[in-house]
Amino acid sequence: MNTEQTYTELFHQTKEMINSHSAEMLNALRDKAIADFARNGFPAKDAEEYKYTDIPALFAPEYGMNLNRLNIPVNPYEVFHCDVPNLSTSLYFLVNDSFVSQLNARRLPDGVFAGSLKDFCDEQPEVAAKYYGKLAKTEKDGVVAFNTAFAQDGFVLYVPKGVVIEKPVQLVNILRGDVDWMANRRLLIIVEENAQAKLLSCDHTMDANINFLATQVTEIFVGENALFDFYELEENELNTKRIASTFVDQQAGSNVMVNGITLNNGLTRNNYFVTLNGPHCESHLCGMAIVDKQQRVDNHTFIDHAAPHCMSNELFKYVLNDQSVGAFSGRILVREGSQKTEAYQTNRNICATREAKMYTKPQLEIYADDVKCSHGATVGQLDENALFYMRARGIDEKEARMLLMFAFMSDVIENIRLDALKDRLKVLVEKRFRHELNKCTSCNICN
Amino acid sequence: MLTIKNLHANINGKEILKGINLSVRAGEVHAIMGPNGSGKSTLSAVLAGNPVFTVTDGEVEFNDKNLLELSPEDRSREGVFLSFQYPVEIPGVSMVNFMRAAINEHRKYKNMEPISATDFLKLMREKREVVELDNKLASRSVNEGFSGGEKKRNEIFQMAMLEPHLAILDETDSGLDIDALRIVANGVNKLKSEHNATIVITHYQRLLDYIKPDFVHVLYKGKIVKSAGPELALELEEKGYDWIKKELGE
Fold first, then answer.
1. ipTM for the complex?
2. Do residues A389 and B88 make contact, with C-beta atoms less than 8 angstroms apart?
3. Residue of A nearest to B91 (CA)
4. Counting CB atoms within 10 angstroms of each CB, which of A225, B100, B231, B245 has the fewest?
């Protein structure tokens, strides 16, 4: 039996258990999802889009899954100190793929729902039915199909029409296990017309020696003239693999910022699909990766200009050390009739060692004739002239390198529209470059 | 202060300096002139420790230390300052952070505590005035978007901050209009004392109207072929470098 067959079998054996611990809305999509998965399988390594991430190999080892929703003995509030404190957020936790019922949440404006996906489906089935699974098509991607078949819970942020959440909401994803473990979580974000919200989602691994595999499917709906920021901060361990797909649907006049920050990881594959469905959208898609050792980061992006008069700005930067490997692919599609489109894409990378590798692939497809588009991709080393200039002023070579790497990342940090996160990230990035960032900054187990 | 003996250096195997001898004492100003490609900038880069050049022979003694054995950063901390012909733009590194890092590294080398924030800002303000450098520039990224003149003023500002024993000004006059030239030269003159020395590398005589040298040397094909007092600069201005070439029998 191959890996796909094993999982398909597992699904059929455990389907009732999966369903009994989930919501009807989620269960309704499982049969189609597992059929799509059985038919298409995981994306093969020779598929162009997955050239640098061997998905079947990631699923091949055996992992435990908490399908029976056993309580995991962890109180996140006790063991966890987030690296981005003082953000005054409403804080929520997912331990593996289970929502931890809230202990001391702040009050959010009336009508806002922040919490368990399962609960949301039970409480507001009409809204859930309108959005859940509508962007993440199971026939298109094997991992999305897999996640849709197995995911039992996740997190929802629902901001109704015209409601503005002033303070950012924070979701912390904790991976915790005693044996090798898999988590399949869903995020559903709905920001209705004229509403505004900001979400910071942080990934943390608590057990460095356990092999974790986390799949995450995020669907984001941003209504007319709504504003939404989504920041993801990954601080996982070397043994953690993350495969995430984020789908964004923007309606006319909406303004979205998605920023994926990989500070520490094992293997990361992020897919971003952004569709601009109405005129006058503004869309910012940013990412930053600082990797070393044998870490791998693969960001795959697709921005679809399906309406005229929209602006998209894409900026991804990587610093690769040791034997780390990075990949970026950025496709921008400007459809026929999407006149007055502005689409900009930049991917800049520094390979700090001879062994580090970076693969970058910009792709622009333009079918409209009145547009402004640009793309630029570079892979290089630190500027030797700048290094010498700094050393000639008495700055230690190591320190000079650190300052230059930090400076290289500064525009991604400056793009952040959340001051507390921006300030904190400056500290974290500097620490990361000084090799002072480890899990002890984020959890107090070993303190 | 500085004694250069038989200095040879090359880049990618091509010999540029072919036996330089020069002696500089505290309080002196030396001008090094010469036609394009004679090795003037190479000499300054080698003294500052630019790793792209390889020293193949000779000695450089600076305040009783073997300069060639020191890293570029230690040379700076020992008091060598190079004003770059082409100051480097460093986007993302603010002038303030850059200068604070430099000052603190110098202090650490002397076993001093890091400078306090207040003292640092005071020092910045004070030294900015030496070259009339705009406060706005000090808050920007290092040299980023600076005009040619601002970059050169910024070099002298950094020199004022670091108070070197030996300042090497590499073509500091190039690209400067007459007003900027006067400001830069005034800055250099204000910083001059009997304890420090200056080497002015220039193609033209006009900078020497403002910074008066005690000695003028002509560098040609990697060697100092003529040394004299300030009058040599005027003679060069009048007769051009062909005169030197003729004298050398070329």
1. 0.96
2. yes
3. A407
4. B231
